[in-house]
Amino acid sequence: MADIGLVGFPSAGKSSLIAAISRAKPKIADYPFTTLIPNLGVVVAGETVFTVADVPGLIEGASLGKGLGHEFLRHIERCQAIVHVVDMATYEPGRDPLSDLDVIEGELAAHGGLDDRPRLVALNKVDVPDARDLTDIVLDDVQQRGWPVFVISTKSGEGLTPLIYAMAAIVQARRDAAPPPEPKRIIISPKAQPAKGTEFSIRQMGDGEGGFVWRVEGEKPQRWVKQTDFLNEEAVGFLADRLHRLGVEDELLRLGAKEGDAVAIGAGVDPVVFDFQPQIETDTEIVSRRGSDQRFDSKRPSVLRRRELDAEYHAFKAEKEGH
Asked: Which of 63, 167, 186, 311 is at 20 to 30 A from 277, Cα to Cα?
């Protein structure tokens, strides 16, 4: 979640600290549990840039789930280092800075898995006269534990710069010790274009009237057929040109289709049936132009059948409307 996790009792000054050392603007108030979710702040110390998380306040029993403790402790697991923010000016009965520190450490130990996290201790609110009087006693105890300790005031800014650079040193040291990430190979894989002839398939279905019946199936031919207005000869010529460029005619010829053979395009029981009339090529030039295909010069059986059906339909419609 963040490089540094700020932990401490509610109202210890964690939100004030993150607001003082970064541009984060957490909710700050003088009552407990004003922070219900972690606040993140980006901190710059020289050439090191790192993130700090203001983890919601822990209380005794957090490791047992008290005060949403399990949720808060899981946030700390994702931090590289821990900073204890100790309230030096608390007036709550039964609390003092060292006891607060012991309680928080006890909860971290009970949660488990955090022993390897480096610790820093920030003795906060020393701008309060009574709090400053306690610093010598607390400093000596914390230093005996082997933890770096900083006397700070988020209100006056005292001690914040040394604390920031101490955080940065820990973060940078752990980054340097981490194994370098494996470089990611950028693989650019252009979408494969189907080879000519693989966008359709042709099957020989058997003998049909006037020759073999050939079935052409494929997404493109079937889509083109559905889009074609067969009452428009120019549209039909355009369809023929597209099928030729796709390689349908070449494949039919390769399989042995003869002029006049019935060719069905489409799947299912209701395909569109054509009479095979290959385009005539001279060298690389087709002897016809789009929209005036020479195959329209002769009326093929399939064309005549379609026109007869169309004429019958229009006659029926006109008769019905007349009544």
From this structure: 311
- One digit per residue, the tens of pLDDT, for the chain of length 323 reads 689 999 888 888 888 999 999 887 755 444 344 444 668 899 999 999 999 988 775 545 444 444 444 455 677 788 889 999 999 998 888 889 999 899 888 888 887 768 889 999 999 999 998 888 889 889 999 999 999 999 999 999 999 999 999 999 999 999 999 888 888 888 887 766 655 556 888 888 876 555 668 888 888 888 888 888 888 888 888 888 888 888 888 888 888 888 888 888 876 667 888 888 877 554 444 444 444 444 444 555 555 666 666 677 677 777 777 65
Number of folded domains that form the chain: 2
- Is the pTM of the predicted complex or chain greater than 0.85? no
Token pair in block for residue 17? 């600290």
The answer on 234 and 155 residing in a single domain is no
Closest to 221 measured CA to CA, from 191, 251, 186, 193 = 251
CATH number at residue 291: 3.30.300.350
Residue 263 lies in a domain: yes
Write down how long the chain is: 323
Residues 171 and 206 in one domain: no
Q: How many CA atoms lie within 13 A of 264 on its CB side?
A: 18
